[in-house]
Amino acid sequence: MAKLAFIGLGLMGTPMATRLLEAGHDLTVWNRTADKTRPLTDQGATAASTPMEAIAGVDAVITMVTNAEALEQVVFGDNGLAAALAPGQLLIDMSTVGPDAVRSVASRLPQGVAMVDAPVRGSVPQATAGKLAVYVGADLSGFQRVEPILAPLGTLHHVGGLGAGAATKVVVNSTLGAAIAAFGEALALGDDFGLDRSVVLDVLSDTPIASTVEAKRANVESGSYPASFKLSLALKDLNLVTQIADQNGRRLEVAPASRDWLEQAAEAGAGDLDYSAVIATITT
Ligand code: NA7
Predict the structure, then answer these.
(1) Which side of the chain, N or C, has fewer Cβ within a 10 Å radius?
(2) 74 band by pLDDT with thresholds 50, 70 and 90
(3) CA of 110 to the centre of ligand 1 (A)
(4) What burial letters (b/e) apply to 179-218, b meaning 16+ CB within 10 Å?
């Protein structure tokens, strides 16, 4: 088992760090809001007071923070990881930040420090159950190095070299935005026809968006949207999708439309709710 540091104990980081601890890894944790380290220290993790302090003597450090700015902060900010990372240590970023941010961070790490990008598909229930899909961007030796560390989190997919994991996650989340917006629009159409919502939900459970309907039906029926995956983060990801497409001169129609719906929902105050709260905006 490895000696690890885990940086970022948000909705995803907490259950992921818990799985690593339960699997027998030796874990030191750090979170910007210090009281979120408590559930981990109660189970035997050590809390550090800075990212820099967290990585003393570890084999690898895992980061799971909001976005590229947060990653920049924990790696290169005051008391950040970069100031203490030593040759032979490994940085595994599991946040969704896009491939440019991954390569930019990797290029500025101290000599002899390797980086692997390993973002995940799945939200809190999958993280808790160790059933995430983990998209690993690394050379073969990097993949072999992270495999035993990350195995307790779910199924690892070696999708290419550095940055390929981040790119794969952008691809995956473009479909997530499309599916939730299609779900909302289908419900809105059903409402306009005067159809019974439960009938429409049954029918949509047998369409190409079935898995989204299954995952989010309870939210729609209860009208409450507790966050498994924050809407603000889905919006961040759809912004990544559209920015990267623009850079590549790639015309997309569906992703920008779903991005616009998420933006409207965020403006209406749903940013900290589950991303499925966009359905409430669409059907209003
Ligand atoms: P959350 O629940 O919003 O958690 C975000 C985490 O990132 C949380 O630990 C934050 O600390 C931390 N964070 C955010 N900004 C910073 C800065 N500037 N410095 C240090 N730490 C920071 O998100 P999820 O866990 O759902 O998702 C994490 C990633 O996986 C994200 O990229 C998703 O798209 C996928 P806080 O507790 O607020 O102090």
Answers:
(1) C
(2) very high
(3) 24
(4) bbbbbbbbbeebeeeeeeeeebbeebeeeebeebbebbbe
CA distances from 87 to 6, 91, 140, 159 (A): 18, 11, 19, 25
Q: How many angstroms is it from 123 CA to the middle of ligand 1?
A: 13
pLDDT of the residue at 68: 98
CB–CB of 116/163 below 8 Å?
no
Task: For residue 125, give both structure tokens.
Answer: 């229930």
Q: Which atom of ligand 1 is nearest to the CA of 12?
A: 25
C-alpha span between 73 and 42 (Å, rounded): 27
Question: Binning pLDDT at 50, 70 and 90, where does residue 73 land?
Answer: very high
pLDDT tens-digit series, residues 15-52: 999 999 999 999 999 999 999 999 999 999 999 999 99
Q: What residue ranges line ligand 1, CB within 6 angstroms?
A: 8-13, 31-33, 36, 64-67, 70, 73-74, 95-96, 230, 233
